[in-house]
Amino acid sequence: MNVEKDFSLKKFNTFGIDIKAKQFVAFHTDDELLNFLKSEEVNLEDILIIGGGSNILFTKDFNGTVLKSEIMGINVLERNKENIFLEVGSGVLWDDLVEYTVNKGYGGIENLTLIPGTVGAAPIQNIGAYGVEFEEVFEELEGIDLLNKRKTIYKKSQCNFGYRDSIFKTELKNKFVVTKIKIKLKVNPQLNTSYKAIQDYIKEKSIENIDIKEISKIVKEIRKSKLPDPNIIGNAGSFFKNPVINKELFIELKNNYDDLVFYQVENDKYKIPAGWLIEKAGYKGKRFDNVGVHEKQSLVLVNYGGATGMEIYDLSNKIKSKILEKFNIVLETEVNIVH
Ligand code: EPU
Question: pTM here?
Answer without folding.
Answer: 0.97
